[in-house]
Design brief:
alpha+beta, 4-stranded mixed beta sheet, two-stranded antiparallel ribbon, 6 strands
């Protein structure tokens, strides 16, 4: 039996998400392979973000959201999500014109990623551009609720070292 196979009802099964501890935060994206071609596509998407993505990224980067680390344009399996927090298994998506004509594709993509334990919060492009305060409050409330129900998800109290451009005051 390979290391990712499990026995269920006496039969071997290849299902890494059902292994002991597989549902803990960050497991899915740390262990899930992604299509190597998406790495370059994600890089291009980061260079050409929409206005809404830039505005939200400015609020999420550098652990500004309650100390959690978010990535932008993160490849996961065969997909790229707008923003992703590995510590929470949380994808934050901004729906705009690129989503107007493919709701079935978006739903299938979300269903597959949710099957890996990834949770989603979605916002409309318009709301990010015109009501950032409410968008940030909804993300904060989601995180605080997760911390309340899953205390092990809290971010580290101390960072490992100074960020780029910061001086170490020790």
């Amino acid at each position: 039996m390979h290391k990712h196979e499990l026995k269920e009802n006496g039969k071997a099964r290849n299902d890494p998400l059902q292994r002991r501890g597989a549902r803990r935060a960050g497991w899915a994206t740390h262990h899930a392979p992604y299509d190597p071609l998406l790495k370059e596509r994600a890089k291009q998407l980061r260079k050409h973000m929409t206005l809404a993505e830039v505005l939200l990224w400015n609020q999420l980067k550098n652990e500004q959201m309650l100390g959690y680390d978010f990535d932008r344009q993160r490849p996961i399996t065969h997909y790229i999500v707008d923003f992703f927090c590995k510590g929470l298994n949380l994808a934050v998506e901004i729906d705009g014109r690129s989503h107007d004509f493919k709701p079935a594709q978006d739903a299938e993509r979300q269903r597959q990623l949710e099957g890996m334990g990834i949770r989603f919060i979605r916002f409309w492009d318009y709301d990010v551009k015109h009501d950032m305060k409410s968008v940030l409050e909804r993300i904060r409330e989601w995180i605080l609720e997760e911390e309340k129900t899953h205390p092990g998800l809290r971010p580290p109290l101390q960072r490992r070292g100074p960020r780029k451009g910061e001086k170490n005051n020790e």
